[in-house]
Structures are given as C-alpha cells and as structure tokens.
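Tutorial sheet, problem 5. The three components below are modelled jointly, 884 residues in total.
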Amino acid sequence: MEKAKYTIGVTALNAIDNPGPGVPVIRALQEAKSFDVKIIGLSYEALEPGIYMHDIVDKSYTIPYPSTGTHHLMNRLREIHDIEKLDVIIPNFDAELFSFIKLEPDLKKMGIHLFMPTIEQYEERQKVNLPEFGEKYNIKVPKSEAIFSLDKMPELEEDFKWPILVKGKFYEASVAHNFEQVNIAFNRISSKWGLPIIIQEFIHGTEFNVTGLGDGKGNTIAAVPIRKQYITDSGKGWGGIAVTDKKLLEITDRFISSTKWRGGFELELMKDNKGDFYMMEINPRIPAWIYLAVGVGQNIPEALVNLALGNEVKPYTKYDAGKMFVRYSWDMIVDLKEFEKISTTGEL
Amino acid sequence: MDIKKDVAVSDSGFVFYPTTGESFSVNPLGMEIIRLMKDDKSFDKITEYVVDHYNVESSTIEKDLLDFIEMLNHFSLMEDDGEG
Amino acid sequence: MEKQQYERPLIKRLESKIPNKFGAKPNLIPITHIDEVAVKDLISEHGSPLFVISEKKIRSNIRKARKAFETRYPKVQFAWSYKTNYLDAVCRTFHQEGSWAEVVSDFEYDKALHNGVNGSKIIYNGPDKTPESIKKAIQNNSLIHIDHLDEYYTIQETADALGIKAKVAVRINMDTGVYPMWDRFGFNYENGQAWTVLNKIMRSDVMTLVGLHTHIGTFMLSAIAYGVAASKLADLAIGIRTKYDHQIEYIDMGGGFASVNRLKGSYLPGVDTNPTIDDFAEAITTALINADFKPDELPLLILETGRALIDDAASLLGTVISNKRLSDGRRSTILDIGVNLLFTSFWYEHPITPAQPFTQYTEDTVVYGPLCMNIDVLREHITLPLLNKDDHVVIQYVGAYNMTQWMQFITLRPRIVMIDEKRNVNIIREREHLDRILEFEKVPDHLKKFDL
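Model answer (structure tokens):
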C-alpha cells in the first residue's frame, strides 16, 4: 500500500546548548513507519540551526513571535499554508503553546491539525496551581504555597522544613537555607518573573522524567520514563537512560486517565529517600530528549501526527530498557547567502 | 563622506561588512544611497539624485540623509576621515 | 518621469538574539479611518490631538455584555461607572442602552441627576459621601452602598431626621485568591465585619437592606475570582434570608473586568489572554445559579462594568512633531500627545498605529510626548514603520479613565468628538481656551503691575 505523505510544520529548531525539541521531533517523523513527510520549519530567529539542516528541514519560514499576538501569527500561518498546504503543526516552544491552543479551532478550519492539550489542561498544570492539581487528581506533589509578600514567610515556617525551594511563576528556582536566602531569591526572581513566588518543599532524592502521549479520552498511547544521567548548568539533560520503574508508569497512566490529557507531555518527578514519587512539574509539550523514546521503540511524534489526523493509533505498550542517549553538538558550515535569504525574505 | 570600501550590499537589501562579520539590512532607498556613496557621490549629488527621483523636498532628504549617515557612523561603516 | 514614493533611508543591524522582523510581512495595517470617517479629515477639522469616541462601538459593547449575562441569568442590570468616563454624551449613550448610573462622589451624583437619571436608578458608592449628598440620596430613593461604619451612622442620623427609610446595600471585601486584595473598601467577609454591619442594618428601623455589593479589583485577569466572590455574596444573602427572613433584591458584582489593553510587562497581548465578557459572565452566573437560592428568589444581578465597555470605543489621534536619534542610536519620535492626556500609558502598552500607508520597513522607536518633562514617555519600546514629521498616528483603547483623569498641564486639553451611528462627527467636549482657565484665577491688586 502506498504510504501517505504529510506536510508537517515544526517549531523550536533551536538545536543549541539549551535545545528546543524541533530537530529531534523531525528526526522521529522522518523515521515514521506509517507515513512519509515533508517538513516545514517554522522559526522565530534567523540563527535557529534547524533552518540550515537541509536533510532535516525541507523548507523554512520565519513566523512572528507569539508576543505580537495570535492575529499576526495566524496571518503568517495562512500565507505559509497557501504555499505549503500544511497537514499538521507540532508547536514545541513553551512560549507559543498558549497561542497555538487558542488558534487550534481556526487552524482546523483551514485544514491544519494540531494535537494539543485543552486550555483548561494547560492552565490547570501551571506551577502556581500544582497543589490543587495534586489534590484533584490524587497525585503527590511537593507542598507549596504561592506568596505575594515576604510577610507570609514567618507563618509558613511552621509548615516547611529548611531548605526550601523559591520558584518563579514561569521560570527559575533556587534553594534557600534561611530567611536571608529566601529574601534574596524572592526579590531576584520576582523582579524578573513577577508575583507570586512559589515556596516549595525541597524533596531530596533522584529526578526522573517521563514523556508520553495521551489521546484526550484518558488512554495512554505512549510512555517512556528515563533518568537523566548528566545535567548541564542550564538544567538540561546531556545524557539519559530509559528505566523500567513500574511506579513511574502507574503515575503516568493515572495522570493521563484522570486529566484525559490530550497531546504530548513531559513529567518531572522526584523520588525521595522513602521511594515515594512527587510530581514536580508538568510540561505540556514534547521534551527535547524525545528521540530516546523513538530509540527505545515508541515513536511519539508519529503517533501524535496520526492522532491529530484522526488516524487509528495503537497504544505502545513496550520499550527497550537499557538504552541511553548522549547528546552532542555539531558545527555546520553555512554559506552567508543562506543567512541573507532567511533574514531578508523570511524563507529558506 | 566615504563608506568603507569592503561594505557589500546585495539586491535583497542585505549589507555585509566582512571586516567585522556584521550584517545589516537596508530599505530600497538606503540601498540606493549606499551604492551612490560607493560610487563616490557627494552629499549634494546624492540629495540631488533623491529629489530628482522621489517625491520629496530637499530639506527632508537632507535631514534624513544626515540621520542615515549618522547611523552608518554608529555602525562603524564609514571611513574615519574627520568629517563625521 | 513619474517620481517614486519617498521613504526615508534606513539601515538596521541584523541581530541574532532579538526578534528579527526584517523581511517578515508588515504586521500592521494603517488605521486610516475610524467608523468610516478619515483620520486626516478629523484632524484637519478638529485639530490634533483629538479624542474620538465611537458611539457604534459603545452600543455594540454594552449589547454584547448584556447578551453575555442575560442569556445565562434571568435578571440582569448594568450600571454605568461614571468615574470611568463621565462625559455626558457617553453616559447618555449607556443610559439609552438601559444602564443605570453608578457614582462615587457628590459631583458624579449631581452629574447623573443632570443627565436625567431617576434617583432610584443611581447607585451611590465610594468612601467619600458628604452628609449633604447622603441626604439627597435618601430623598431621591437612591441605592446607597455603605463603605464604612462612620457612613452607616451618618445615614442612620440623616434618615432618622428626614423620616424617610434609606435603601442601603453593603460593600463586602473578601479573599478571592487574587492579589492585591482590595480590603480597603467595605467590610470584610472572612473576619465577620460584614455580619456586624448587616446585623446593625437589619435592626435599624430607618434603613432597608436591598443589596450586597463587592468589587474585587481592577483589570482582573482571572474570571474564576468572580465566581468565588459571587458564591460568597450568595452565602451572605442566604444567611440573611435564614436569620431575618429578609430577601435582598440584588447582588452587585461591581466592575474590574479587564479590557483588551495590554499591561506593561505581559508577554502576550491582552486580546489573546484577557478573559472575555463571556468568561466573566459564565463564572458569575454559574456561581449564583448553583447557590442555594430558591428558583423564584434569585436576586437581580447588577454589573458596574466600566473599562471593558469603553476602552476600545475611543482612540486618541495625534501628529508627529519630530523624529530624533538618541545618543545610543535608538530612534525617538515626539508626538503632540503627552502623558497628561494619556494617563493610562503608565501601565498599558497602548497600540500606536500610523494613519497613513507605510512599507514593511520598521524601526525600534521610543515614543515621547511633547511635555518638557522627562517622564513624558508613551512607549519605551515599540516597533514602528518609518514616520515623517506631520504624519498622523492613532492610539487605540483609550476610552477608560483618560477623559476623567487627564490634566490641564503645560498644554490645553483638546476637543473630544463622538462619531454617531450615521457617521456624523459630533463635538462632545470643546477644546479648552486660555480664557476659561483664567476664569478660575484671581490676581491680588499688588501683583497686577510690573515693569521688566
């Protein structure tokens, strides 16, 4: 039987030291067994390396930053769609997820399919809402409290044990061992990311991650847990290994079935010294290390595309443990003409 | 009023200065002016050219040309001939 | 030979880190017309700067808001928040659309009466109600929303002296999970203050408790908080019903809905992220309907929405005075609009759009006002097409608070026009003249003469 060929737009082509998931997602799609692909790179900046990888990306277009508004993003996507006839877009940048979720119904009318969490799922798993999330779905989360002022700290001292984590609303966290350090972290992080600041119980233990895919009806389509072996200064895994802990898969199933999660995700979990797992964070998108999941037998991007298009998808139930990923960087030689072209015309 | 000799400008409005590896972009009139400068046209000649070809008062182009040259200086694309 | 359209020469460094929009298609289209009237004509007729209000937009906003609530809840009443914009023409548009008046001072109260609003349809809010205005409000059967106990006693004495029963409601503040909590107005729900005053009112023979009121904040970005607030007011109402067998007439949810403006520092524009009127309506009405009211005892729901109904119905037109280059190479543009006219530019990033066609070439620009004051900055950073001296711009979403909080400072305040539904341009406030300003001033005799 002839395989279908889909045109798929992929963002986050920033395969840099703090990499976006775009390039590994594309590699996964190129290895898909159920279809062939034409890849359209969607980039925000002229130096996103994926633009210049011609065996990865068939054609690239710049798109406006989400901060300029969905209206402008939609206009640009319409122009690209007129030329390329996109079947699916896989957005991979944190900052753009909200905008794409908003645009999903309009894109669908044009024939472009997404497979993303609902806006409720997206909001519910925000860091600030994590305690309610844990309670609602019966998932252990570290004790945390959102505070708007340092005056709250003395009250909290009774509930928390030192050290504690001081976290920003969107990004950044630091460990504090005393009030003085809370003070410094509170001011530094709030000046950058605003209020509230989240005071969180510090869980001693080992970090595990799970990437997976929910079909939006409560079924687990894929799930691969790993332990990161080496973490860079910017907190990114530079090496990781697939693990077989049944508890991790149970938590993932519970997460998917109770939230009816739709789309790809990454769970960040901490296993404490007693062997209990705590959910630290839920990223509502595919992680940058997704290619390991493909390598152990679960092609999550492929399954996501099939779900987006309404094709039948059989859940993955197995994966090969004992495989690991080691990331490396690679210097490409690029003709300035190419940089000129993407910079001046917005296409390459 | 000399623009540095190795500043290259392409038809797409892409300006490249190989000495520092920096790149810039110009709009169509900016591109024309850089080409005129590379042909050693004087300030007055360029003004005259623009007034002849565009719908503009000479006072406006004089002011805008000064500003454009200020930016070329700002980006170190002009020869230091004591004029800037 | 036909001469080409001029656009000033431009060179920009291609940065690899910051957003590089060069080459991308223009993000903006010029705003050449407002309600089909040319910006150019408006300015040549009425001068620059100029506030332009769209009557059509006001009417469509209030109709949309009413629809959002009325399709979800049986009894709904809007009251126009005078402080948001108390130009008579604006207020009367809202009154024509069925809105009552919501006022917070003696001055606003009189303005509502002057506009012909029946006293019984004036809601009197705020912490500063003078004894004279309280007397007037009692006599006119207005709805007095008590803010503090001192006011309670004034009402008690005044009503007693007049021998008229005052219709009162209590303003309640509460924790709805949002920050900052507006606990400076009204009585607190959680600590029992609310019940203290409610008990007093219920036992007073010169007051009738007609409603409960809250106003949880301003430019609220969470609809959920309104649901929480509505539940708490419903709890109180049901408590009063149980304890005193007294049924209140209404629950007033106040205002505070966010408009489409973009708060400074927010990553995504307001139109994308701010809850819509439907989101607020859903949260509030769901909470009320799910509360334990008997079906035939659902209270009237009052909304004092201001900003969300008027912000995007007004624009401020202006003119480029000059373009300058700052010492660090940044472009700056000076407009004839200062922060004295656009107070809200301190917290919003108002969209500024040229009123004439332009190309896709843009420059990062600082936009200054004309005041000889360093704080006169309208936008610290905006990507604008190449503007020339005397070009016109349109600043959008300026309808709320600017035409009430503006200042006569350095310059005189400009004219305000309203475009009606037949596209007629009506002057609704004249530009100020030196004579009018001088009318307020007096010069002592010994200062009348001087020699220089």
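Marking note: Chain B has three helices and three strands. Full credit if you identified this.
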